[in-house]
User: Fold this.
Amino acid sequence: MPVNHRPSDDGSWHHQLGTSLFPASPSRYHLYIGAFCPYAHRADLARSLKGLQPFLPVSIVKPYTEGPGGWQFPATDSEHPGSTPDHLYHSEFLSELYFRSDPDYKGKYTVPMLWDKETEQVVNNESQDIMRMLFSAFNDLLPADKTKQRELDFYPPDLRPQIDELSSWMSPDLAAGVYKAGYAPTSSAYAEAAKTVFAALERFEHHLAQHPDYLYLLSPTRITEADLKLYTTLIRFNPAFHPKFDDGVGKVGEKAPRVGRWLRHLFWKVEGVRETTDFRAMRESYSKDGGDGRVEDVETFVEPWTEEDERWRLERAVV
Assistant:
């Protein structure tokens, strides 16, 4: 068996697909995610939009922890809708895989996590690394009829400066900010964190107002990494984060109508996005109550796409 490469000092593995150690292969890797987690959702969304399901199967932990083992797998497919058993080893806890990779591991047991079945070790457990690898690592394996998926580039060279600039404040102010607000230990800490969150939301609203022809954050026609990052945070706002804010705080579409329409466009009109969005898991993770996350309640969290919305979309010549 090849040498097992241990995690870095920060407790993460940062190996890359497409290298001599971890070449792209149609059956070698496995992705572990949690449908509740916005960071794991990034990886699953990249997998879905690129059409990588035949090459990269997934196992999905339950949306809440049970006991010291951390994230847990259901024992059967029917035990917990939206979650799956560990399809590789039938592990009870995700932590078992981390210790299988490194018996002396002392870091956190996080999702997403990319696993190499051949060497039985973690390849990478950093969400941005995994997301970006999936943008291109399997391109050569996609069949001839998947030209659209092969050509999708979510981090194109000409837009990288804009993507990086958005990410520089989106990540701390919004993606991390909703957690700081939702779990703030004091009212003053909440007020400060909530102020930062809604200031970031307002920045996106202003950005879209300056680009009325854009269907996506940075282009009329091209979806990018910036869209994936913002979507996986904001789609959780109404079902999971909003209940943790003060009663006077509106939902996304009420606070930022342009951002709300951008969000609804991705959910309703971009194939592969809605399929990765599990409202029940989001609700359960934050409230231990998935009752409002049933599929039939989806419009509780995402308003429907209207005829007016469709006219707006078609005016931008995107079909």
